[in-house]
Specification:
Radius of gyration: 22 Å
Shape: elongated
Number of strands: 12
Protein name: Asp23/Gls24 family envelope stress response protein
Organism: Sulfobacillus acidophilus
InterPro entries: P-loop_NTPase
Strand order of the largest sheet: 4-3-2-5-1-6
Number of helices: 9
Distance between the termini: 72 Å
Structural class: alpha/beta
Number of domains: 2
Length: 273
């Protein structure tokens, strides 16, 4: 049986993603398709966000699932979760049609909700102003989920309480700034990350010094490798684990990068020198 489709339609920057979680709760929908992502119960199950693309044209193509591998991944995700209903976001009915056709959902019954029905003119103007001046976008998923897919982006949580028929539902969304924003890009050099790692380790008294830091960058985040000299073999395992924790916390807090792993090796003891 095909899932029931709710289509939320509105111009870019009108606040669709901001309102998506509210609409989903109101309609009893637990699955959202937004800008190339398949989100189920607040978890990103499949896809790649259009907000990660380098150009607006690439973002549009990503949002309508033109890439065969991307499309196949999301179709497989839909088969796995098998939702009863789905909220699909788009800028027009034509865009919704293309998304549904790409995902083999074009035969599903649908209900159209326009942003004008759920957001006032002032609210839409504010959403457009924030998009234009600050380059911010909302993703209807918790920050911990979004950070996995948006390494290096500034991601902030947005939480609020939604009340419906006497029930209180806590909803968390995430605010990100995409790379194709006209406000420009930022880069963090490996030497800066290395300096941060050395600084974090310097606060651990059991470490004599850091010999080497290597940074491996991937699309999903970074892997940090450190070679250190211990002052003593006492509690060596706990000390190295503390190094991992300190370095991860420092890098993620200061840069918003997703640290996939911190690999630490004790090369020798200080007394060997």
């Amino acid at each position: 049986m095909a899932p029931v489709i709710y289509a939320l339609i509105g111009p870019s920057g009108s606040g669709k993603s901001h309102r998506a979680s509210l609409v989903a709760v109101d309609k009893g929908v637990d699955t959202i398709i937004d800008d190339g992502l398949l989100i189920h119960h607040g978890r990103i199950e499949a896809g790649r966000s259009a907000k990660r693309e380098a150009t607006r044209m690439a973002a549009v193509k990503r949002a309508i699932f033109e890439d065969p591998d991307h499309r196949a991944e999301v179709i497989a995700g839909l088969k796995t979760i098998n939702p009863d209903s789905i909220l699909v976001l788009g800028t027009s009915e034509h865009m919704i049609d293309r998304i549904l056709a790409a995902l083999n959902l074009d035969a599903a019954p649908r209900h159209v909700i326009r942003i004008e029905e759920i957001a006032s003119p002032d609210e839409r103007r504010i959403a457009h102003y924030v998009r234009r001046t600050e380059g911010k976008h909302v993703i209807p998923a918790p920050t911990m989920e979004v950070r996995k897919s948006f390494s290096g982006y500034l991601v902030d949580p947005l939480r609020f309480i939604f009340r419906k028929k006497g029930l209180q539902v806590e909803v968390e969304k995430s605010i990100v700034r995409p790379t194709y924003s006209g406000l420009g890009r930022f880069y963090i050099a490996d030497r800066v990350l290395s300096s941060m790692a050395v600084h974090a380790v310097g606060e651990i008294p059991e470490i004599d010094r850091v010999l080497r830091v290597m940074i491996q960058s991937t699309v999903d985040g970074i892997i940090i490798q450190l070679d250190v000299i211990l002052k003593s073999p006492r509690h060596a395992f706990n000390t190295l684990r503390l190094v991992q924790q300190q370095v991860r916390q420092e890098i993620e807090t200061m840069t918003s990068l997703n640290v996939l792993a911190v690999q630490v090796e004790a090369r020798r003891m200080a007394w060997d020198e």
